[in-house]
Amino acid sequence: MSSQTAQSISSGPVAEKARTEADTTKNEFSNLAASRTTPDAQTATGQNLTHYHSMFYSLLSWENPRATGISFATVVTAIFVSRYVPIARYALKATWTALGAIAAVEVGSKTVMGSGVASRMRPKKYYTIPRETLENALEDVEQFINFFVIEIQRVVFAENVWATIAAFAASLVTYFLIKVTPAWGLALLGTVVLYLGPLIYIKNRELIDGHLNNANQIVSDQTQQLRSLAAQHSNKALDATKNAAGSYATKAQEMVGHAKRQAVDKGYVSKETAEKVPSGGAGSSVQSESFPSAPQTEPAPAVADTAAEIKKEAEEPLLA
Questions:
Q1: In 3D, which of 167, 6, 209, 191 has the Cα closest to residue 80?
Q2: Which whole-number Å values give the CA distances from 175 to 171, 179, 186, 194, in the listed order?
C-alpha cells in the first residue's frame, strides 16, 4: 500500500511539475555556461573582449531567469551568512577537531593493534592536479581578471559616456554611504542594484527609452540654441570691430591730411612733396615700389682704405 502511494505521488502532477522545473533550471544553467564565448564586439581600440563579457551579459540581462534568480539568491545568502555566521572560526574549529581525531585514532590504533588506521587508508599514490586542469584554470583566471581590467579602462576613457556617468554616480553615492553603512550593507546594496537594475530596465524599456530620448532631445535643442546665440554674439562683435577699425582709419586719414596741410602752410615741405606722402586710409596698401631695392652684390672695398692698408704694411718692420 505504501509503495503504491509513493508511486502515485511520484507520477502525480506535482512531481511532474517539479521534474519539469528542475529540467528547465538545468537547461538554463547549461545555456549560461555555453554563453562563455568571446563576443564579436570589440573595444574602441580594436581589442577582443573576454568570454566573461558574454557570460555576465547573459547573466545580468535575465536571459535565463531561473539561473539568474538562483545566482542572485546565492550571493545575497552568502552576504548574510558572512555577516552573521563566524565562518572562519567554524572552519578552524572543524580543522583542529578533525586533525586531532585523526591523530588520536592513529596513535591509539598503533598502540593497540600495531598498525595505524590512517596508514592503512593511505592511497598508493597521492592525488595531484593534472597540468591541463591547471592551465585551463589559469587561463580562466586570466580572462576573469582581464574582464575587470578592460572594463575599468573603458569606463575611465569614456568609451561609453553613460557607463562613465553611472560609475561616477555609484562612486559618489558610495563615498557618502560608506560613512554610515557597514561593508556588508554596501555589498548587499550593490548586489541588489546590479541584479535588479537591468531587470527594471527590461520590464520598463519603452518608458525609460522614451524619457531618455526626450532628455537627449532637450539637451540637443539647448545646445543648438547656445550655438546660435554664440554665433549671433560673434557676428555682432565682428561687425563692431569692423566699424571701429573703419572709424579709426578714417580719423587717421583725416589727421594725416591735416598734418600735411599744416606742414605746407608753415613751409616745412613743398606741396609736391606733401602730395607724394600717402594718406594711409583704410584702402591704402603697401607696395614694393615704396621701398628701395635691396643690393644684389657685396659692396667693393674703398680705394682709400686699400691704399692705407698697403702703406701701413710697408711701414711695419720685418721680423728677423
A1: 191
A2: 6, 7, 11, 18
Angle at 230 between CA 228 and CA 236, to 5 degrees: 105
**Helix, strand or coil for residue 228?**
helix
β-partners of residue 42 are 48
Is 56 exposed, middle or buried, given 0-12, 13-18 or 19+ CB atoms closer than 10 A?
middle
- What phi and psi, each to the nearest 5 degrees, are found at residue 106? -65, -45
Cell of 173: 553615492
For residue 195, the tally of other CB atoms under 10 A from its CB is 19
- Residue 128 identity (one-letter amino acid): T
Q: Which residues pair with 48 in a beta bridge?
A: 42
pLDDT of amino acid 288: 45
Q: Which residues, other chains included, contact 68 with Cβ-Cβ below 8 Å and sequence gap of 6+?
A: 59, 60, 62, 195
Indicate the residue type of 17.
Answer: K
3-state secondary structure of 137: helix
Asked if 59 contacts 28 with a C-beta cutoff of 8 angstroms, the reply is: no
CB atoms within 10 A of CB 50: 23
Q: What one-character DSSP code corresponds to residue 280?
A: -
> What is the Cα–Cα distance from 192 to 127, expressed in whole angstroms?
41
Q: Is the pTM of this model over 0.70?
A: no
Could you say which residues of the chain have pLDDT below 50? 1, 281-288, 290-291, 302-304, 307, 310-311, 314, 316-320
Gap between the Cα atoms of 130 and 124, Å rounded: 17
In Å, how far are 55, 62, 182 from 22, measured between CA atoms? Answer: 21, 18, 37
Cβ-proximal residues to 170 (8 Å cutoff; 6+ apart), any chain? 193
- Quote the cell numbers at residue 269: 615741405
Alpha-carbon distance 135 to 129, whole Å?
A: 10
Rg (CA), the chain: 46
